[in-house]
Design goal:
Layout lengths: L1 H18 L19 E6 L5 H17 L2 E6 L6 H14 L3 E4 L7 H9 L3 E5 L11 E4 L2 H16 L4 E7 L7 H14 L15 E3 L4 E9 L4 H14 L5 E4 L2 H14 L5 E6 L2 H9 L4 E4 L2 H18 L12 E2 L3 E4 L11 H6 L6
Helix pairs in contact: 2-10, 3-4, 5-6, 7-8
């Protein structure tokens, strides 16, 4: 613990200097009030999306098992950078050992740097920041691969039919890696040439995919929410009611899209998504979503808590996955309509491992 006490002293000095508060302030973090318990803050994009609720549950479980003090915080909604900045400032003030964060955008990068300068170890979960070295390491799904899987599946299911595509993204007013990686991965999986892999919407609006011809009708933001998905789908249908492929950033957006499709009387549409939560897997079973790429937020959170505890105890840091600039926590395609050459599991199998709960 000598290494950890040294870091604690530097941290408290930084906090006193930069924030002008007492070193024992906050709600009892690792350096507060003489409590030597390792302290971790989990800062999610919001506290309402089931994905982040499940991530919080995974962090609680790991913290309880490891004797770690956990503080939960979140933005008010996807994109709320100011709320996350405040949560980071609070973690610095408490003297926490580390922060786990799903970044809401580049606006949080300066606060992350401030935390690292103060001696906190910062791990991004699910959403790698841009640039990736803004944090110490990221534990995440390979979001490009997740998109690629549902793109490959879609191309196979179309079997050469023309693809009239709606892309229901996350934002149109900020650039977030999870947004462009999933979108661009989907198009690459379809066999559509992407120009800048860090930019949504710059690819040709029409051309050829691996099985035939395509037309991209729209790129619309959803904010990762059901109401956003419905509004986005309505806008796309107004541009072209013949849409037969809908890519969605996540399953809440997919549910909203399906409601718009149903209201419009549009049938025979392939709707694909990413997340693989228990509700999402049920929607695959019910036919509302045709395929989804399942990720594992419980694993991300558990590994994150365990990593910060280990760093605080003996300084041993986690390593990235070979060939990537983050630690890959895995992704699996879930569908009840398998496609030749695209590895997948059924909705029944997906329910048994949804988000890594099992």
């Amino acid at each position: 613990m000598i290494l950890r006490r040294s870091r604690r002293g530097a941290l408290m000095l930084a906090v006193a200097t930069s924030l002008s508060i007492a070193a024992c302030g906050g709600d009892g973090g690792a350096g507060a009030g003489g409590d030597d318990k390792i302290a971790v803050a989990l800062v999610t994009k919001n506290s309402t999306n089931p994905f982040f609720v499940t991530m919080q549950e995974g962090a609680r479980k790991a913290a309880d098992a490891g004797g770690v003090k956990l503080t939960l915080a979140a933005g008010k909604e996807d994109g709320d950078e100011a709320g996350q900045v405040q949560a980071i400032e609070d973690a610095i003030a408490r003297g926490d050992d580390g922060i786990l964060i799903t970044p809401n955008g580049p606006g949080v990068n300066p606060a992350i740097k401030k935390a690292r300068d103060a001696g906190l170890y910062v791990i991004a979960l699910d959403t790698p920041p841009d640039p990736a070295d803004t944090v110490d390491i990221t534990f995440a799904t390979d979001n490009f691969r997740a998109g690629e899987l549902i793109g490959q599946w879609t191309a196979k299911q179309l079997a050469g039919k023309p693809a009239t595509i709606a892309l229901l993204d996350l934002f149109n007013d900020k650039i977030v890696s999870v947004d462009y990686n999933r979108d661009q991965g989907f198009l690459a999986g379809m066999g559509i040439d992407t120009k800048d892999r860090k930019a949504n919407g710059d690819e040709a609006r029409s051309g050829s995919y691996s099985g035939g011809t395509y037309t991209i009708v729209c790129n619309e933001p959803t904010n990762g929410a059901e109401d956003g998905g419905r509004t986005a789908m309505e806008r796309c249908l107004a541009k072209n009611p013949a849409i037969n492929v809908v890519y969605t950033i996540n399953e809440p957006a997919a549910v909203g899209a399906q409601k718009a499709l149903k209201a419009a009387g549009t049938k025979d549409v392939l709707v694909v998504s990413i997340d693989g939560g228990c509700n999402g897997v049920q929607q695959v079973k019910d036919g509302l979503i045709n395929a989804t790429a399942q990720q594992y937020p419980v694993k991300m959170a558990e590994l994150g808590v365990q990593a910060i505890k280990k760093i605080a105890q003996d300084g041993q840091k986690p390593q990235t996955t070979s060939g990537l600039d983050f630690f890959d926590t895995g992704v699996t395609l879930v569908t009840d309509k398998p496609a030749a050459g695209v590895e997948s599991i059924t909705s029944a199998e997906g329910a048994g491992r949804c988000w890594g709960k099992a």
